[in-house]
Write a structure and sequence with these properties.
The chain is mostly helical. It is 61% helix and 3% strand. A two-stranded antiparallel ribbon has the order 1-2. Helix 1 crosses helix 4, helix 3 runs antiparallel to helix 4 and helix 3 crosses helix 8. It is globular, with a radius of gyration of 16 Å. The model has no long low-confidence stretch (mean pLDDT 86).
């Protein structure tokens, strides 16, 4: 029996495929870096690694921008989303110098990202302000607002094991040359 696909379903499928391709293309250098690969060892929320969380945030940020018909700097949106939690440690392990992770990790992520990459103003804003409203300074650009919203959405999905885009994350990882065995 043939499956009938509506035009709306086809558009959604094309949009998801577009987002996967764009995140893989603009994110390849970051996703294949040694430090980002190390994020696969650190859990973020539930059983989701920090690496997979960051990929999901980039994916959903782009989908949200497209769904809302917003003009954004897609490359900066993706790069900032991938680096928003680039703090490079397991925040579940207590450490005297890392109290109040939620309040401080954005600044550490920015420091690490600036050390390892050349960032533009939008990418820096995305990274340092993604914890709004916990960090009280609001995002300055629409890309930051989108990543902030996508980050909260992904955290909820991960914490409750519901709605995580595992297939999209797997496909993005598969498209990156460093993850051919993913």
């Amino acid at each position: 029996m043939a499956t009938i696909t509506t035009e709306s379903e086809q558009k959604k499928r094309l949009l998801r495929k577009y987002a996967v391709c764009l995140v893989a293309a603009h994110g390849q250098a970051i996703l294949c870096s040694r430090s980002m690969q190390a994020e696969k060892q650190f859990f973020q929320h539930g059983r989701i690694s920090c690496y997979d969380h960051s990929v999901a945030v980039a994916y959903f940020s782009l989908l949200l921008a497209k769904k809302l018909h917003l003009r954004v700097d897609e490359k900066s949106l993706i790069r900032g989303a991938l680096l928003h939690d680039y703090f490079l440690y397991d925040w579940h392990i207590p450490h005297p110098g890392r109290r109040l992770h939620g309040l401080h990790h954005a600044k550490l992520a920015l420091q690490n990202a600036e050390r390892d990459y050349t960032l533009n103003a939008k990418e820096r804003d995305i990274i340092v302000r993604h914890m709004f409203p916990l960090n009280p300074i609001p995002p300055r650009c629409r890309e930051s607002v989108l990543v902030t919203a996508a980050d909260k959405f992904c955290a909820i999905c991960e914490a409750f094991s519901a709605g995580f885009p595992a297939a999209a994350v797997h496909e993005i990882k598969r498209r990156c040359s460093c993850n051919k065995n993913a």
